[in-house]
């Protein structure tokens, strides 16, 4: 398993192919926290220099099970425990039997996530997209606790979160207080998340009705991937861009989209297939891990988002 994914479980088919311990069914929180390897707590410890000088107003966040240092935080930071995250989502959706399809930790425990099935699939003919409530939390002070709606297309695990109508379908809480007082706010956001799913269904149907001719395809791709002025220094860049365009065009014409050929829906998914599963990756990291990281950070599909806005 790639080093960035520390522990993880995934029900049935993984959200990110090839990662995690597989379980035959989605799990309740009491089982998910164990299968995901998240049944540990975090404490804050006072800091001092190597020669014994106190460091005021700063603390180390330390995992209690193995004393590993996860980060350095200020004096107002309050750890939000993994169990609190599960309990919070159970309360937000008002269902102690809510089913988790994946959960785990990245970067040696510094970031954890929970993915809960909202049981509101979007179906376009035989093409199904499931909608999830994704919650992420950091134990190193790098980010707030965040929740957002994430649609994932089943056939290829593509994440298709789109900026529909500019609606806010997420929440974010800083680590300065306990979660008990945040439930009402999160529930209000969850209501918007369900509205987002309804809008997502309508938008997918609209994309199906939107024709993308060869000329329109070229026009959009030229806008999304403009070529630099041809010079001796830009030869490799021009070749790379042209190859990327050709790859997306090939995906656009794959048999997978024969039923919806030359539509906005096919174009969006072809671009998403390219961006998440075909495009080159940098560094010593697997494609599955990169997709998991970008999904959690909300940065997985800038090219697809641009294509969507132009369609």
What key phrases describe this protein's structure?
alpha+beta; 2 domains; three-stranded antiparallel sheet; 8 helices; 25% strand
Q: What do you see in this structure?
A:
The chain is built from eight helices and twelve strands. The chain has helices at 29-35, 82-92, 183-208, 214-224, 235-252, 264-278, 287-297, 302-310, and strands spanning 5-11, 21-23, 42-48, 54-63, 69-74, 100-106, 111-117, 122-124, 127-138, 145-153, 158-159, 170-173. The mean pLDDT is 81. 35% of the residues lie in helices and 25% in strands. α5 crosses α6. It has two domains: 5-204, no CATH class; 206-310, no CATH class. The protein has 311 residues and is an alpha+beta fold. Strands 1, 2, 6, 7, 8, 9, 10, 11 and 12 form a nine-stranded mixed beta sheet that branches.
